Amino acid sequence: MDFSNRGAQPVANPAQHAPMPVNNRSHFKKDNKDLWTRLGITAAVLCVVILLVGIIAALYANNSNTKDTESQYIYTNKLQAVFLNTGQVYFGNIKVLNNNFLVLTNIFYLQTNSTGSTTSSSSTSTGSNNVSLVKLGCELHQPYDEMIINRASVTFWENLQSTGQVAKAVATWEQQHPNGQQCTTQTTSSGSTNGSVQPATTTPAK
């Protein structure tokens, strides 16, 4: 019997006890997929934000252009007539015009003085309707010569030619009142003529 190899130990197969190699490909693919998903979501959010900013900017620009486009039609060296939805008309110079309000200065308005057929101790009526152009400021409440009008109350406005009766009457009034309107001035005529400008007067209660 051969006992020469009795003490020899069997050689272990290293392949049997070697640790199994970890396959990282699946983990890499999963991480890569998650990364692209996050990048896609971020890009989509950025696109939505940019789109919203663009829409807001376009709306703001549209409102600004509307205001500027309308304002550019104001002839600053001419009078304007502002027609309200109440039927009242004011004449003056538009200084500010936007989507919310307009500011009117140097203000005049028409006043119809209707007289009947009765005879009073001070005057005799002729039964005619006299239209006068009144300068704002000497009314009972004595407002400043500036009016802020709600834009929603304005039906339309227009520039006035210098050859019109209103513009001529205003020019005449300004020549006669170089220092502006004096509310203590009273008219002495018993009636007003078409196109004349008069300060508003009040009659004290008896």
Whole-number count of domains: 2
- CATH architectural name of the largest domain: Roll
> How many runs of DSSP E, i.e. beta strands?
7
Share of helical residues:
25-40%
| 3D shape | rod-shaped
Mean pLDDT: 77
CATH T-level topology of the largest domain: SH3 type barrels
Strand percentage: 15-25%
Question: How would a crystallographer describe the biggest sheet?
Answer: 7 strands, mixed
CATH class of the largest domain: Mainly Beta
What would you say this structure looks like, in words?
This protein is α+β, with helices and mostly antiparallel strands and 206 residues long. It folds into two domains: 30-71; 80-185 and 193-199, SH3 type barrels (Roll). Helix content is 31%, strand content 24%. It has helices spanning 14-17, 25-71, 165-176, and strands spanning 80-84, 89-97, 101-114, 129-135, 146-150, 154-159, 197-199. Strands 1, 2, 3, 4, 5, 6 and 7 form a seven-stranded mixed sheet that branches. A hairpin with a 3-residue loop joins strand 2 (89-97) and strand 3 (101-114). The radius of gyration is 44 Å and the shape is rod-shaped. Mean pLDDT is 77; it is low at 116-128, 186-194 and 201-206.
